[in-house]
Specification:
The chain is mostly beta strands and 190 residues long. 0% of the residues lie in helices and 34% in strands.
Length: 190
Amino acid sequence: MLVASACGGGASAAQPDPGVQQSGTQPCRAADLHGLFRGFRAAGGSLTAAVVLTDAGSTPCQLSGTPPSVTLLDQGGGSVAAKSHAVAVPEDAGAVVLKPGATMPGFGAAPPPGTAWFVVTWSNWCSDTLPAVSSLLVVLPGGGSVVAQPDATAPSWAAGPSAPKCDDARAGSTLTIGRFQAPGTQTPVS
């Protein structure tokens, strides 16, 4: 997305975009990240959810690419059977810089500057038993993982469907994982 603006007065120095990779910024460590699972919403026969990550450490860090895997977790912390695969990342995608102290967004609010987010799409659930997905285990590109917890600010009426529709009983359930993005690059699913 290209944004242009005009201002009156003199020229000012360009400011670096806070969501774009800056030299010297280290990759994020799992121990320094907090995750927010914003819940699934219907998207055709599939379900889509946004995951927001914040830096709870003391220095900025960066995330690039796509999480290599995401696991659906039920209320007891057990995994829900689904194969996951990451989407291909454009070569010019760059890294997203997370800033310490950035807050998690409230229900329905866009992720604030200094955070990162990505989309997970869940397709093809053919079991007779509906899962109770409550959180997501996100594996990071450099190793380690973080559990994205549910949005505690979401009202009960906002709960999405329990599972996607069954498209092919022989294919198994799948998760498609999008790349890390800076806030404002696209509209995340709330």
